[in-house]
Write a structure and sequence with these properties.
The chain contains eight helices and seven strands. With 240 residues, it is an alpha/beta fold. A seven-stranded mixed sheet has the order 3-2-1-4-5-7-6, with helices on both faces. β2, α2 and β3 form a beta-alpha-beta unit. It is globular and about 50 Å long. The chain starts with 15 loop residues before the first strand and ends with a strand.
Length: 240
């Protein structure tokens, strides 16, 4: 399930892409498959990094040898990235910042490793759907590795632009997932036994795998109103 739309991220041949907080590698692998770029995914979770590498291995035999395309994964702390200054052309930071206390320090690290004129894509949960989740269940966010803040998009935009970035696009994503998470939060203690949650999960998997036009059309219609994630695209100043 891709939150970032790579159609809004022009990635040139042989460029370097960092998926920061990559989880199981969805965006790093997508960029690797869709472009001719060198993609790196990093995360604190060794388990997730291992799962990402295994997924990538499943695709390697489908691609021709290409010196301008590669993908790799490793563990790293977003507050102290093990990369030189100005070494990436694109940084993707999707659904990460809401988990981190000193998130502005992460933004500073992104600025450091991103080349002047490079692109940053940042996504976080949208304010009002996330607020409903918090109101329905403390357990949704009050657990290790959970969400520790709710962002207002305008405030995050300001934080990023203060570092010398310019936002050039914004959209919302995953509206169909919002009722699913509201249901999970409402029934948190008995969600494993809920037929409604199980049915909704099957619907989401079907939509993800088959991409039928009715659900795709419905999500596009609903995203501006109740998209679960807000996705913002920035360009770093060329003098930075």
């Amino acid at each position: 399930m891709e939150t970032v739309d790579l159609d809004f991220v022009p990635i040139g041949r042989g460029e370097r892409v960092l998926d920061l907080g990559c989880g199981e590698g969805r965006h790093a692998i997508a960029a690797w498959l869709k472009t001719r770029a060198h993609c790196v995914g990093v995360d604190l979770s060794l388990r997730d990094v291992g799962a990402a590498a295994a997924k990538a291995d499943g695709f390697r035999s489908t691609l021709p040898a290409d010196p301008d395309r590669s993908v790799g994964f490793g563990c790293a702390d977003a507050l102290a990235l093990p990369f030189a200054d100005h070494c990436f052309d694109v940084v993707i930071c999707s659904e990460v910042l809401e988990h981190i206390g000193p998130y502005r320090a992460v933004l500073a690290e992104i600025r450091r490793v991103l080349k002047p004129g490079g692109l940053l894509v940042a996504s976080v949960p949208r304010y009002w759907p996330e607020r409903v989740c918090w109101a329905l269940s403390d357990a949704y966010h009050a657990n290790e590795g959970g969400h520790i803040r709710i962002f207002r998009a305008c405030e995050l935009k300001r934080d990023i632009e203060t570092l010398g970035f310019r936002r050039y696009h914004r959209h919302f994503a995953h509206a169909l997932h919002v009722p699913f998470w509201w249901l999970k939060c409402l029934l948190w203690e008995r969600q494993e036994q809920s037929r409604a949650i199980a049915w909704y999960h099957r619907l989401l998997v079907w939509d993800l795998m088959e991409r039928p036009w009715p659900t795709r059309w419905l999500e596009r219609l609903l995203n501006p109103v109740m998209g679960k994630s807000v996705v913002m695209y920035f360009e770093k100043a060329r003098s930075g």
